[in-house]
Amino acid sequence: MARGPRGGVRNRGEWQPAAALPVARVVVDVALAHLDRPFDYRVPGHLDELAVPGVRLRVRFAGRLVDGYLLERAADSEHTGTLAWVEKVVSAEPVLTPEVAALCRAVADRSAGVMADVLRLAVPPRHARVEAEAVGELAAPPPVTAPAAPGWARYVRGPALLDALAGGRTAHAVWQALPGESWTERLAEAAAATVAAGRGALLVVPDQRDVDALHAACAARLGAEAVVALTAELGPAERYRRWLAVRRGRVRVVVGTRSAAFAPVAELGLLAIWDDGDDLHGEPRAPYPHVRDVLLLRARTAGAALLVAGFARTAEGQLLVESGWAREVVAERHTVRAAMPRVTPVGETDGQLVRDPQARAARLPKIAFEAAREGLAGGRPVLVQVPRAGYVPWLSCGSCRETARCRHCAGPLGLPGRRGAPDAATDAALPTCRWCGRAEAAFRCPACGSRRLRAGVIGSGRTAEELGRAFPGTVVRASGGGSPVLATVAGGAEIVVATPGAEPRTPGGYGAALLLDGWALLARPDLRVVEETLRRWLGAAGLVVPHTDGGRVVVMAEAGEPVVQALVRWDPAGHAATELASRTEVGFPPAVRMAAVEGSAAALEELLDELPETVEVLGPVEIEVAPGPGAPDEPRERALLRVPRTEGRALAATLHAAQASRTARKSADPVRVRLDPIEIG
């Protein structure tokens, strides 16, 4: 009998079904909603030993060979016709665990998505050479004792949380880190307590810098062999090598970015997410799940502890606390006051600016210069947070202050490079459209007819240049906004200009932080703008030394704004409670479940017609799409769908059924469906 590769029989006519459990239930890699279910295939006898649950295989589907995963073996099938054969087992490595398979199904159901799309997020592509590397014997992990963690003693319920993890008990917590807190050390201590109980830990952070810092903290406490980092920055081979080490049970602690949320950690005891409000936690690919939601689903199914942590608190985190599902881990007010820097708001109605017209027009008012000078005089670096990247990313009319726009595509005009002020007589640089890239040589304001331009907002590049002139002899570093993002800076007297999220850490903390252009952060038309602004401010202010050591924060925003007062008091929990109450009153997430559906007018109408009357529809409205390669030819519209939280599953199922109906009819125009979208502008 002729044999094919991997022991297969070349002549399909000679194939015989496996003697036991001859039916394979397979999820195929086909991202069509009406085909989002397992399919039954016959397992040939020569693949009986290789075809175990979790392996990759290839099957014939609709006349072509497609990839798939074997979910389970069964004795018979409900299909009345003749089953097709499993053509090939691609690899004997069972890469899809039952727990991760169930998680992928749950994520797809919650997001009105397709399981095949979630599996692409959960299981990395195969790398045959890495898979063939010697596995070796699985060494017993070295014993770990529950760590003494005095840092957690500063928080109410902090020691109780560690005791629960060390005892292998389930705990759900929302942790508010103190300003200046070494959050990497606290999470490493939580992971060590979990490992001491014989269970695994999965810690998810927004970006590579946070991964590096947290991985170093965990490795220092548990040993380099006990923890692995999983990120998209790794090459295919190294990423798959580390992922296999987790799958084979060689590593008990995983640190990574959003893709690591699906890592197949054995005996999960702790799931943690740091800074859950960061938009990097939102998956940009279908079905667009958020890491927080993935970990919530996983904590429920795996019986693991969940820790939602950060300097700030989202409305979603507050909902977990108010619903009773999670307990808050916070410090007493006197502890917070002792740890925080002194925060001073400076707005347009501030008395100093009213009395000093020159200070009103200055990039930095006098009080900000004083704070920076004091910080530098103390031998510490000074952090300057600028909300916009570039040089002058946004220009406006010099007379009426309307946004300056391109005549060709109506995109915003700006000066992206190192150029002089746009109203300088010697300036020969031309404003450039940020959408189509055309230079505008003869701007005329359509509102008032003026030809003058002014800077609508100053970018990080221009800010660094101005600070260099204001503090001669002082080193000025840039992080983010077109410059490399710095992980750390030395602790000397220097100025660091950073965009939000790119603030580098420094040994000993910053002497001062200047939070510029608060109005630019608060002026964005987005549901989460206030929450996001406070998160960015707290992230920067949390790097400053306490006020007892001279730490100061100057925020350029009106003192009367509630979000500014939340920063002054360092009260993210109180602000989150107010934010949740506001959204409940107007009916926005997370108080309700909401879906955003986008597509052409005809496609959107087709989908909306299939919704029940119980779904509240807001819109549709035409949405603005920047011109360029890949831009749609016809206008796009968006509608928001709203239901009570108790009907969220029903909404997801309805949208999935509507998408299935459209794909079954082979509708040409796709419709993008996002449940609980991060941005609702």
Distance between the termini: 66 Å
Task: Tell me how many strands there are.
Answer: 27
Share of helix among residues?
Answer: 25-40%
Mean pLDDT: 87
Rg over CA atoms = 28 Å
Largest sheet: 8 strands, mixed
Q: Tell me the strand percentage band.
A: 15-25%
Alpha-beta classification: alpha/beta
Overall spatial form: globular
Low-confidence stretches: 1-8, 353-362, 418-428
Biggest sheet, strands in spatial order?
Answer: 6-13-7-12-11-8-10-9
Number of DSSP helical runs: 20
In short:
With about 675 residues, this protein is of the alpha/beta class. Helices cover about 30% and strands about 20% of the residues.
Written account of the structure:
The protein is built from 20 helices and 27 strands. 46% of the residues are buried. The strands form six sheets. The chain has an eight-stranded mixed beta sheet with strand order 6-13-7-12-11-8-10-9, sandwiched between helices. The chain has a six-stranded parallel beta sheet with strand order 14-23-22-15-21-20, sandwiched between helices. A five-stranded antiparallel beta sheet has the order 2-1-4-3-5, with no helix packed on it. Strand 11 (268-274), helix 8 and strand 12 (305-310) form a beta-alpha-beta unit. It has 681 residues and is an alpha/beta fold. Mean pLDDT is 87; it is low at 1-8, 353-362 and 418-428. The protein is globular and about 85 Å long. Helix content is 30%, strand content 20%. Helix 1 packs across helix 2 and helix 16 (529-541) runs parallel beside helix 17.
